[in-house]
Write a structure and sequence with these properties.
Radius of gyration: 13 Å
Shape: globular
Distance between the termini: 44 Å
Structural class: mainly alpha
Length: 83
Amino acid sequence: MSALTRELNDAGIAESLIQQLQTTASATNYGLQRSIHLDRENLEGLAYVMILACADIADGTMTLQESVDVDISTGRAAATPRS
């Protein structure tokens, strides 16, 4: 078991949540790089980055909007508004 896998386990991230992340990332063309399938190591890395972002939002280090703005500024396309 890798150190990253242990960190995810310690954070309470179940395998089912990792698989949901894979499904969502594949369906939305989202990941560490656009249009690149996430292998297991990169999938776990993305999950860990998301944990850190959630922790920053939870403790007030940044707002959800600031997190989205950072995400977009580093390469993710803005979501299409839903009507």
